[in-house]
Amino acid sequence: MSDSLALSLSGVSKSFDKTAILKGINLDVRKGEFISLLGPSGCGKTTTLNLIAGFSKPDAGDILISGRRVNDMPSHHRHLGMVFQGHALFPHMNCFDNVAFGLRMRKAADSEIRSRVGEALELVRLSGMEKRFPRELSGGQQQRVGLARALAVKPEILLLDEPLSNLDAKLRKAMQSELRAIHTKIRTTMVYVTHDQEEALTLSNRIAVMNDGRLEQLDTPEGIYLQPRTRFVADFIGSSNFLRGTVIECRPGSVVAKLETGENAIVRTDKNLPAGSEIQLGVRSDRILVLSADAPISQGALSGKVLDRVFAGSQFQILVEVASGQRISVHLNEAPSANVVPGASVRLEIAPSNWMILQ
Ligand SMILES: Nc1ncnc2c1ncn2[C@@H]1O[C@H](COP(=O)(O)OP(=O)(O)O)[C@@H](O)[C@H]1O
Ligand SMILES: [Mg+2]
């Protein structure tokens, strides 16, 4: 139902200097949703946001806000809020005036301005700071004023472009949970650009993973993490390993694949993959068991040799070379047995449901 869509992009393309930057983006954002555009630097996230904001026009495709085509609508008529990189606060204005700015542009009445600014500052927990100037605020507080300024006009959609990227790790975490709390409270539709997978996973209702001007997958954080559709998504979010295989047997609910290591894997799948099909398999680093080589043989285990064992704080990271020469990274929450050391022979066990079939 288009009624429930805050934003819709269909076939949106954009080139700069004859180089295609966006290659047909389709994206539907529901009202009240927090959606992240996640992808590596240069994949087209900011370009997409600029088109939504109306700072530039698509070469092809349509952009709809609340069901209305806005391709030719100027930015200030789109009723958006923006928190962009480089959109600093006005240094010569205090907090109140910064937050009031958009309302004054809209010629709101003084009483309305006072109540909206008060509400917005309360929402970002800065009540009482009205008279402070930006230079008298910490980086995190300045970000919150920027957020209040964008929210004060009660936008239909709030666009945020890497708003936390200049903050240190701890403050970023704190701001993430504030943003979550604010979204839960006001339910404004938010489109959030980030290259930080963890940020996207923790904040979003859904994540749009972008790669080289295309949308690779649009799904919930769980869906993106547990059921990545493509190798790119599996690689970009979390840590994954990849092996090619050929289906040698098709069973109800699973297939047996001969891996490039020469070993067989049992792969749970509902897909109908006839014998002979070439498949790209992936497995998350944290979904592999490391057993010593003398453990009882089970079907679907890979033999390998440990290259490295690293304690990385919250996990142990083991690097194992398998028969094909590939290196498989394994992340364990608990210490592996003492004999899992460089040079040791081990077996890697991967449950059928932990194999991912990727495009
Ligand atoms: N105004 C522009 N003119 C020319 N090239 C641009 C312009 N804006 C962005 N690009 C190019 O488009 C690509 C995507 O940029 P951008 O959308 O900013 O990526 P992201 O935000 O995902 O890091 C980059 O290669 C960038 O150099
Ligand atoms: Mg960008």
Describe this structure in words.
The chain has 359 residues and is α+β, with helices and mostly antiparallel strands. It folds into two domains: 2-234, P-loop containing nucleotide triphosphate hydrolases (Rossmann fold, 3-Layer(aba) Sandwich); 252-358, Nucleic acid-binding proteins (OB fold (Dihydrolipoamide Acetyltransferase, E2P)). The chain contains eight helices and 20 strands. It has helices spanning 45-53, 95-105, 110-123, 139-151, 169-186, 197-203, 221-226, 231-236; strands at residues 5-16, 19-30, 34-38, 60-65, 68-69, 80-83, 157-161, 189-194, 206-211, 214-219, 240-251, 254-259, 264-268, 278-284, 289-292, 301-311, 316-322, 327-332, 345-349, 355-358. Strands 6-7-8-3-9-10 form a six-stranded mixed sheet, with helices on both faces. Helix 2 (95-105) crosses helix 3 (110-123), helix 2 (95-105) runs parallel beside helix 4 and helix 3 packs across helix 4. The longest helix has 18 residues, at 169-186. The radius of gyration is 25 Å and the shape is elongated. The mean pLDDT is 94. The structure holds adenosine-5'-diphosphate (ADP) and magnesium ion (MG). Magnesium ion binds next to helix 1.
Helices and strands, with pairings:
Layout: E1 5-16, E2 19-30, E3 34-38, H1 45-53, E4 60-65, E5 68-69, E6 80-83, H2 95-105, H3 110-123, H4 139-151, E7 157-161, H5 169-186, E8 189-194, H6 197-203, E9 206-211, E10 214-219, H7 221-226, H8 231-236, E11 240-251, E12 254-259, E13 264-268, E14 278-284, E15 289-292, E16 301-311, E17 316-322, E18 327-332, E19 345-349, E20 355-358
The chain binds adenosine-5'-diphosphate and magnesium ion (MG).
